[in-house]
Design a protein that fits this description.
The structure holds 2 protein chains of 2 kinds. Chain A is an alpha/beta fold. Chain A has 12 helices and 13 strands. Chain B starts with 16 loop residues before the first helix and ends with a helix. Chain B is globular, with a radius of gyration of 21 Å. Classes of the chains: A alpha/beta, B mainly alpha. At the A-B interface, helix 2, helix 3, helix 4 and helix 6 of A face helix 1 and helix 5 of B.
Chain lengths: 306, 267
């Protein structure tokens, strides 16, 4: 259980996190979604007591993280992949962490085996790929068999098998009753992984909702109409709440009407339809729509949107 | 790999200082840079000590009573202090440079046990490496010096103190490096500050009138710390243990500042 109350972090004159209040409940995967620079990592660092909030508070399993005497049992975290000294082996990295809490050596072998790093664990981590770094980060998070798991962009750099494996792991951790809080800047990743979503932009809460509700609330369907006479059809589709835009190739994009309504309107006017397609906005589009005003680095996201 | 569940770990896992010291010891011994710096320290103590001793034997002093057989055989300590000091800086700045400091502090959220753990693990390691190094350098040096009857025995007054004092001096320099690294969180800054603290005060003092510089000289880090490793008392310097105690104040103060800041600043 993670409870953030009016959590705020200011760096100089920039508000990185702005009055965030949310609760992450156990027993399900909660996605922490927002564009790059939205304040996700800062929030996660505050949860772990690494950065002090400018104001507000955040509790983990009922206490500030720093007040826990068995921290690795309470929270397992992956903050940045490859947060390891390049000269040290994954095994020694994990062993040093385990030692702080008296976790047995055999547990280190266990988590290394579980994330599939057994073959490279004794090698210097400097040569690790991003994907191997993520696996090591997940091993780090799992070390203390924690009640709460916090992972910052754990799917970055993983191949398809890796992504599928992390998803399955997160879901099984949640099914065991743990609190699982996973950040991502990609809606599509979270749609398949999370049951609940906390969406932020520019440090502010945008949505705190189930994945299904999020999609329903944000989704807008449009109908694409290709016709021989778009100029004649467009005026017949006007009305309150209806938007019609002209595209290339005699195509109209219509929102606020169903395909049935458009088809009948065209039939009544004797206009020939060449194509009539309902298009559901993708999760990614819903997310981009919701966070459009809150995007910090607009230029970087334009080319990346599908 | 296909196994998506982890076995539970029912064991108790509370943090305590001893455990954190053991953790820091693993961090220290698991880096190649540690091994290289420690090897360099030993090689410099013994190698430079023997080379300098051999040179001195080739040109014996006119007045053997002013000859400090201990200092000559331990002259390598003057160079070895840089290797150990740099290792001290790297031991903590390496974590800041790689962001692994966040992993460390998430595991030890109280933060200070990590800093104390580093100091203890590093201090003990340095001492354990330094004592045999200075002893070997002393004994080998004396056997070279005996050719000209310039050698001195471990039983003579102040000799054991000077030999072990040199090992303590190396340990204190290493801890000074660690403290500066912890305070500045940056490798280049830490190393510069260490060298600056060990050298710059003497240079600055040289610009001042002699009456001022003679009075202040003894309080500077390097002259204060060097007193313990010499059998011959420098008239301008503090007594061996007084000087060493003063020298130890530098790492203690810097470590205190680093601790204060570690609690306050974001990681």
């Amino acid at each position: 259980m993670i409870e953030a109350r009016k959590l705020t972090k200011r760096y100089g004159d920039k508000l990185a996190v702005d009055g965030l209040t949310f609760t992450v409940s156990p027993g399900m995967v909660t996605g922490f979604l927002g564009p790059n620079g939205a304040g996700k990592s800062t929030t996660m660092r505050m949860i772990l007591g690494l950065d002090a909030p400018t104001s507000g508070s955040v509790l983990v399993n009922g206490k500030p993280y720093r007040a826990h005497t068995a921290p690795l049992r309470e929270v397992g975290a992956l903050l940045e992949a490859r947060s390891i000294h390049p000269g040290r082996s994954a095994y020694n990295h994990l062993l040093a962490l385990a030692r702080t809490s008296g976790i047995h050596r055999s547990r280190v072998d266990e988590v290394i085996e579980a994330v599939g790093l057994a073959g490279v664990a004794r090698r210097r981590a400097g040569k690790f790929s991003l994907g191997m770094g993520q696996r090591l980060g997940i091993a780090t998070a799992m070390l203390g068999d924690p009640h709460t798991v916090i992972l910052d962009e754990p799917l970055n750099g993983l191949d398809t098998d890796g992504i599928r494996w992390v998803r399955a792991l997160l879901q099984s951790l949640a099914a065991e009753g743990r609190t699982v809080f996973v950040s991502s800047h990609l809606m599509s990743e979270m749609a398949l992984t999370a049951q609940h979503l906390i969406v932020i932009g520019k440090g502010r809460l945008i949505a705190d909702t189930g994945v299904a509700e999020f999609v329903r609330a944000g989704s807008r369907s449009v109908v694409r109409v290709r016709t021989t006479h778009p100029d004649a059809l467009a005026p017949r589709l006007s009305g309150p709440g209806i938007e019609v835009s002209f595209d290339r190739d005699n195509t109209l994009t219509v929102s606020g009407l169903t395909t049935d309504q458009i088809g009948m309107a065209a039939g009544a006017a004797g206009i020939t339809l060449l194509e009539l397609t309902a298009e559901q906005a993708s999760l990614e589009e819903v997310f981009i729509d919701l966070t459009r005003d809150a995007v910090e680095h607009r230029a970087n996201t334009v080319g990346a949107t599908p | 790999m296909n196994n998506v569940t982890l076995p539970a770990y029912p064991g108790e896992q509370h943090i305590n200082q001893v455990r954190v010291i053991r953790s820091e010891w693993i961090k220290l011994r698991s880096l190649p840079s540690t091994i290289w710096c420690l090897l360099a320290t030993v090689a410099l103590v013994v190698g430079v000590g023997l080379a300098y001793t051999t040179l001195r034997v080739a040109r014996p002093p006119a007045d053997p009573t002013t000859f400090d057989a201990v200092s000559v055989s331990l002259s390598g300590v003057q160079l070895a202090q840089f290797a150990i000091g740099v290792l001290g800086v790297l031991f903590i700045t390496g974590e800041y440079a790689t962001a692994s400091i966040r992993v460390s502090l998430a595991a030890v959220p109280g933060r200070l046990p990590m800093l104390w753990g580093k100091a203890v693990a590093f201090g003990l390691t340095t001492l354990v490496i330094s004592v045999p190094a200075v002893l070997a350098s002393f004994l080998a040096g004396q056997s070279i010096l005996s050719a000209q009857d310039l050698d001195i025995g471990l039983g003579e007054p102040g000799v054991v103190r000077a030999v072990l004092g040199s090992a303590l001096f190396l340990t204190a320099v290493g801890l000074l490096g660690l403290s500066l690294g912890a305070l500045l969180r940056n490798t280049a800054g830490g190393i510069s500050a260490l060298f600056g603290l060990l050298f710059a005060p003497q240079l600055v003092l040289g610009l001042l009138p002699e009456s001022v510089s003679d009075a202040a000289y003894r309080y500077l880090p390097t002259p204060a710390g060097a007193a313990v490793s010499s059998v011959h008392q420098d008239p301008l310097a503090l007594g061996p243990w007084t000087g060493f105690a003063l020298f130890c104040l530098y790492p203690v103060i810097v470590l205190g500042l680093a601790a204060w800041q570690l609690r306050r600043r974001d990681a």
